[in-house]
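for the writeup, i need someone to sanity check this before i put it in the appendix. the sequnce is what the collaborator sent (i think, or maybe the updated version? ugh). structure was predicted straight from it, no edits. if anything looks off just tell me and ill rerun, i have time this weekend
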Amino acid sequence: MKKAITLIVCMALTAALLAACGAQPAEPDLDELAFQLRDSAGFGEEMYLLDEGIARELYGLGTDASCVAWSGAGATAEELAVFETASAGDAQELLERLWERNESRIADYGSYLPDEVPKLENSLILAEGRFVLLCTAQDSSGARQLWKATFGG
């Protein structure tokens, strides 16, 4: 009888461990993630936190999405924006708009600050679930690594 109870308990513990391993990680806090990403990217100029209302207008966001964004003083194309949307579908739509915006910026910068074009061509524009990242920096590798670590990719 003891062996049967021990076996049942072991099987229950094993099932619980397997279920926990397959569980989805908790979603990150937008503000915390955004500040960590800012600190992990290599920007060539000082970055300034944008008012969320200004960021909403700049990126064409509705009221159902949140954003934390930084921009340089304007001497470079550098920017960082982290978004949390209402759904994964909304995140994919935003991702497409950000790619279009980036292509437009490449054309614009090509005519008056061509040295900034390589940064724009290497912009990180990524989505994971309801979260979206836009990072244009001298070195975005740290931001890419943090994004992957956060979302397990």
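Residues 3-22 have pLDDT under 50 and may be disordered. The chain is about 50% helix and 15% strand.
thx in advance!!
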